[in-house]
């Protein structure tokens, strides 16, 4: 990116994004386009790569995102506001979450509802005790006070119809879809090396 104005705005946006993360290791943002197009409210798109980031309480080992064309409303620009969107645009990308750190996040207040949903819908009891990733298998555990042994079930994950399905390995029970924000569509999910990698598309609205 050789355009001086785009470099300047990209640096400012990178700092703005970093300020909204709980933790940032590496973060690189590139804007595609030209100063002339930007002054007319148009960008060809943006590319973001990040490592060792914690956003909204979730640990992201790696994230790579790329947007389509972005239309800006220059009349709405105000001090302290980097960009004002005029129209919706789409972002595609991949994020990788380490299982051990995801397990810790599910124990936090921010993600307690998701943990309770997983425990109730997939194990039949609450609260969720632990999540771990064993090669290509996800294992969930819960401790019932009246029992010595914990309850545990193992699942394969499958991307289907824009969401992730939990497919039980140990019985013939039907798969269970994860409730999703309708603006986010998962196209692929993979488990490996103690991590879960999600690929998908999101709609960003003004």
Largest sheet: 6 strands, antiparallel
Terminal CA distance: 26 Å
Overall mean pLDDT:
89
- State Rg: 20 Å
Helix content: 10-25%
Apparent shape: elongated
Number of helices in the DSSP assignment: 4
Give a description of the structure.
By secondary structure, this protein is α+β, with helices and mostly antiparallel strands. It has helices at 4-19, 35-39, 99-106, 112-123; strands at residues 26-32, 42-43, 45-55, 58-67, 70-71, 89-98, 130-134, 137-142, 151-160, 163-168, 176-177, 184-192, 195-204. The strands form three sheets. Strands 1-3-4-6-13-12 form a six-stranded antiparallel sheet, with helices on one face. Strands 7-8-9-10-11 form a five-stranded antiparallel sheet. Strands 2-5 form a two-stranded antiparallel sheet. The chain is elongated, with a radius of gyration of 20 Å. 16% of the residues are buried. The model has no long low-confidence stretch (mean pLDDT 89).
